[in-house]
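Quick one, probably user error.
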């Protein structure tokens, strides 16, 4: 079913433009998005790429999430996920209140084991289960850190806050993921852990990427690199450094800076040869496969869609690669295929993403925009295409 006038991104762009009493021509001039592209996006004839949405959001002085329509409240309620958000918010808000006298936390080793298990569940896309378990773990880890302020306990708390960032990001709550990152930094500083602090800057840069503030994102990557210089040499440092290079490459690609993007990809590839697969080091999924997957993303961000599709065809994904990362890759490939005119392959990749990670896929802005872009070619689509749209909520 086609997106309704209230649902698709183009309609939200048109609504925001009219509130600001701008003509399409005026918004085109302000945003440096071509008039032809803007009119087609507003009409729902053409999907909006992330760079176009970012440029229009800046010109309209609104958040990217407002134009994407996040969070998708009706779908969250249907999945019973909306009720899990407020307990996470409340748990994040007690970070500085000290020991909770009514709480009897488990031993640190047990909390660490659960924190590690939740990280694995996030990568397995079990978002609902993680969101349900997370508030109590945050509260216990907070009390333990305040009761015994050792580095180990602050590291535990910082890691749990990172998981809160992962969950709130995947469910489309950018305001709350920013709070989680601030809490992560607060705990990492008390742990005197430069690796955690550097990783927090990487995650923060990704938040600015989603908000289409590439300049700030690049500054955060540089700050993260500087912070990592204080860490002990070794594989953990290499993995986090390599991941920062991958984040920088995507930022440069979104900013249409191909030379810089290629430089960061090259450095990440060199590091990955040294580390090999390192999916469980801080659960960053770093390694040669992730470098190849990021190269696909960068090529797509540079609007080099046929090249992105070709690169995707050359990647061999190993068995057991994290489902959350693989589902995201399928969504990226689907977008590139859609723009390259390979509509059948694009839909197959959307279906593959759904099979791997249904909750993550349902709330992924790229998936929704790609689906809307395929609407124009609906006559070429199989009967299951409309059913996918009903499930997606567009």
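Nope, works fine. Designed sequence:
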């Amino acid at each position: 079913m086609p997106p309704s006038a209230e649902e698709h991104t183009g309609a939200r762009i048109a609504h925001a433009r009219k509130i600001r009493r701008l003509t399409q021509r005026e918004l085109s001039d302000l945003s440096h998005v071509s008039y032809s592209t803007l009119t087609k996006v507003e009409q729902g004839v053409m999907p909006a790429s992330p760079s176009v949405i970012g440029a229009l959001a800046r010109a309209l002085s609104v958040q990217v999430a407002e134009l994407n329509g996040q969070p998708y409240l009706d779908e969250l309620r249907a999945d019973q996920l909306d009720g899990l958000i407020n307990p996470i918010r409340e748990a994040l808000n007690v970070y500085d209140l000290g020991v909770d006298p009514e709480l009897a936390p488990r031993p640190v080793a047990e909390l660490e084991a659960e924190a590690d298990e939740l990280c694995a569940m996030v990568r397995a896309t079990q978002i609902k289960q993680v969101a349900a378990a997370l508030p109590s773990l945050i509260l216990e880890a907070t009390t333990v850190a305040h009761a015994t302020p050792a580095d180990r306990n602050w590291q535990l708390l910082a890691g749990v806050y990172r998981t809160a960032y992962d969950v709130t990001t995947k469910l489309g709550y950018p305001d709350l993921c920013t709070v989680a990152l601030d809490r992560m930094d607060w705990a990492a500083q008390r742990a005197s852990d430069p690796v955690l602090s550097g990783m927090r800057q990487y995650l923060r840069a990704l938040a600015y990427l989603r908000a289409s503030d590439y300049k700030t994102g690049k500054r955060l990557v540089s700050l993260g690199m500087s912070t990592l210089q204080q860490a002990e040499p070794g594989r953990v440092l290499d993995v986090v450094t390599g991941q920062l290079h991958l984040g920088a490459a995507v930022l440069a690609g979104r900013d249409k800076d191909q030379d810089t993007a290629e430089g960061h990809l090259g450095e990440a590839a060199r590091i990955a040869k040294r580390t090999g697969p390192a999916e469980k080091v801080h659960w960053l999924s770093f390694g040669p496969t992730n470098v190849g997957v990021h190269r696909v993303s960068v090529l797509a961000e540079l609007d080099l869609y046929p090249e992105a599709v070709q690169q995707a065809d050359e990647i061999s994904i190993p068995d057991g690669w994290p489902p959350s990362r693989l589902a995201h890759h399928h969504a990226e490939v689907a977008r590139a295929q859609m723009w390259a005119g390979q509509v059948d392959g694009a839909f197959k990749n959307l279906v593959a993403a759904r099979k791997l990670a249904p909750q993550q896929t349902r709330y992924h802005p790229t998936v929704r925009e790609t689906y809307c872009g395929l609407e124009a070619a609906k006559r070429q689509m199989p009967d299951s295409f409309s059913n996918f749209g009903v499930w997606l909520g567009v």
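The chain is about 70% helix and 0% strand.
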